[in-house]
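Hypothesis: this fold can be encoded by more than one sequence.
Test: take the structure tokens below, design a sequence, compare later.
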């Protein structure tokens, strides 16, 4: 069967050249006579894979020397607890912005460990926008300030970072990781699950400013203590070996097409094609505040649930799969991460345009 265009929010498409390379190397990676799936993480054969991936991550994202890159497990959701356990270590206070479901979950988890304040929320607007921030509400002695930078479910993103002064900014970037250049030095911590833009599921990447490490609460589980993971080169225990290998191949692919600057241009172009169509359509409509539109997750609706369902079904039959919106919001969502080719979006728009004419 021909490959489909997969608009899933995650796990999601991987570049075809990366999948081909992994297939070629499945039985014998790099002349070792072994599959990566079979390698000991402590072997000479695996060393260039994990250290190569860590180095390439630093190079591709321009991560400054005073930041540690940690490969761990548990998904972004496990970090919702790991973050307070590692960084809620001074005043015991933290500020959270609620801009969707994932930041709300992160907030609820953090309330188990300290004095957590919601400084802004767009819940009343059904998370269709990034809430306005008022610096006067920020807690001056907070241990950190937390945001979810791209809201995967609602299709919004922060286009401007909050000015938190000396309070470290922590951002969940699961669904916008490696989609464009980022100034890592503006953050204390960035982290994300890999299964959206970076690799298959199983790998979580945490990037931490060094001076924030080493102050975890004494009851922090060892496996959630970022200092322990960093000190052991992400191999305190068995890491997700194969996902790390795939991450390395994805990073090599990003480099080969011109790095994050080139990807940003491609990603802006893809999102532009889709939003331009939605703005001109009489049937489909993007329900979020235009200035907060995500470049990675584009949500859209028609006037009725029946028409939405018909669209999702016919699109799948035509080879555009996983366009159904998140179960909590309905409608449609096209996740157009790095690996989605421009022609995938062009063909989707052509299909939507025909669907509009015929219905
Ligand atoms: C997918 C996602 C999560 C949850 O990730 P898991 O790895 O499944 O725990 C959290 N935050 C954001 C922004 C996401 O897109």
């Amino acid at each position: 069967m021909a490959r489909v265009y997969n608009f899933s929010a995650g796990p999601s498409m991987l570049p075809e050249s990366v999948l081909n390379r992994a297939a070629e190397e499945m039985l014998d990676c790099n002349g070792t006579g072994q599959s990566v799936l079979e390698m000991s993480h402590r072997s000479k054969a695996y060393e260039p894979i994990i250290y190569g991936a860590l180095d390439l991550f630093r190079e591709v994202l321009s991560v400054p020397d005073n930041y540690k890159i940690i490969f761990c497990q548990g998904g972004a959701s496990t970090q919702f607890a790991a973050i307070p356990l590692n960084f809620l270590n001074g005043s015991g206070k933290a500020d959270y912005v609620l801009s969707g479901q994932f930041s709300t979950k992160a907030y609820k988890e953090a309330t188990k460990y300290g004095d957590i304040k919601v400084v802004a929320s767009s819940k009343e607007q059904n998370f269709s926008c990034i809430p306005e921030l008022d610096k006067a509400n920020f807690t001056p002695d907070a241990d950190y300030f937390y945001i979810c930078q791209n809201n995967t479910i609602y299709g919004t993103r922060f286009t401007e970072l909050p000015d938190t002064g000396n309070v470290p900014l922590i951002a969940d970037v699961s669904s916008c990781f490696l989609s464009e250049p980022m100034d890592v030095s503006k953050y204390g911590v960035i982290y994300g699950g890999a299964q959206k833009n970076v690799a298959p599921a199983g790998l979580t990447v945490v990037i931490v400013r060094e001076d924030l490490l080493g102050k975890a609460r004494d009851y922090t589980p060892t496996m959630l203590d970022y200092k322990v993971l960093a000190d052991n080169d992400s191999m305190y225990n068995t890491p997700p070996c194969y996902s790390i290998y795939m991450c390395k191949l994805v990073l090599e692919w990003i480099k080969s097409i011109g790095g994050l600057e080139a990807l940003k241009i491609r990603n802006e172009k893809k999102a532009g094609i889709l939003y331009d169509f939605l703005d001109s359509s009489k049937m489909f409509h993007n329900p979020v505040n235009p200035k907060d539109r995500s470049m990675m997750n584009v949500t859209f609706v028609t006037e009725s649930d029946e028409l939405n369902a018909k669209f999702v079904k016919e699109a799948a039959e035509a080879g555009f799969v996983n366009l159904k919106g998140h179960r909590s919001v309905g409608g449609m969502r096209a996740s157009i991460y790095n690996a989605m080719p421009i022609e995938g979006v062009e063909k989707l728009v052509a299909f939507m345009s025909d669907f509009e004419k015929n219905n």
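Residues 10, 75-77, 102, 148, 152, 172, 174-175, 193, 196 surround pyridoxal-5'-phosphate (CB under 6 Å). The CA atoms of residues 39 and 46 lie 6 Å apart.
Hypothesis status: open.
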